[in-house]
Amino acid sequence: MKFGVIVFPGSNCDHDAYHVISKHVGQPVDFIWHRDTDLSAYDAIIIPGGFSYGDYLRAGALARFSPVMNSVKEFAARGGFVLGICNGFQILCEAGLLPGALIRNRDLHFICDYINVRVETTETPFTNQLQAGSVLRIPIAHAEGNYVCDDATLEALKREDRIVFRYCTGAGETTSESNPNGSRDNIAGICNPERNVLGLMPHPERACEDLLGSADGSGVFSSLAATLAAHVSTY
Amino acid sequence: MKAKVYVTLKSGVLDPQGKAIQHSVELLGYGGIADIRQGKYFEIALDSTLDQDKAREAATRMAREVLSNPVIEDYRVEIES
Asked: Domain of A87?
């Protein structure tokens, strides 16, 4: 199985993602410059956090037009696994691969802090090694993480079990106080209807070692690795 | 030929920046403000050989596909010759 981490001008969590895949997942991984378009060598693509194009116009809006994004769309349409973290989530929404949008945090601040998220579904390639209802302590670092969508989209997300993570208290309650940025329905991460594209604002790649304060994010990568191992063996 | 594009948040979409601006303006002593919403304004210099309709078509396409995000924003296009 091979992973690719896309690098836009302004990406800054690309090395974190690379580190986690090579060190913790123990699998080959490449950086992919945003002007490259050949993704045929990869089984999973990570769109990392950062400030692609300086967040000009809207967060993620300009990255959508990078040449690699057409390839990512084709890759996802073929069933390839795509994980968008933070700015990666914003890019996936701007590109139309995930519904809704991420707007300025409710209280305007850039928030860099540990938060709690509840695992809402294990029926995804990214959470199948986690426990439903379990609480992960993972950092966030964003100014535009306030998830918005219309009522019909929210209903579809709920009906199709596509809300993957919700902000919550340490005890797992989804309260308004535990919602750091004002996201609708405490949404921290969602997947597409085919479930092979996940976007989330928290940074699981920054929480894979106890030395860094939490290893709770590692379950996302071990789930993806387990999915790919099963996938590859069926080829 | 110039296109002016105004991008505004859809009604109902929270605008925390607008709220903060409103608060500051009120602190200065201005009263009677029901709401302030912040938007974006673009001036696009277009090829002078384009006619009005073509210019409007081009600017509208840019507004729809790049300058605004239809999930959260509306746009308005004006053409100035």
From this structure: 3-233
Contacts of A108 in chain B (CB under 8 A): 16-17, 20
Q: Are strands A3-7 and B39-45 parallel, antiparallel or unpaired?
A: unpaired
Alpha carbon distance A202, A215 (integer Å): 13
B17, B20, B72 member nearest A148 (Cβ): B72
CB A133 within 8 A of CB A118: yes
CB contact under 8 A, A101 and B69: yes
pTM, whole model, 2 decimals?
Answer: 0.94
ipTM over 0.90: no
A137-161 tens-digit pLDDT: 999 999 999 999 999 999 999 999 9
Check which CATH number belongs to the domain holding B7 and give it. 3.30.1280.10
Neighbours of A12 (CB within 10 A): 16
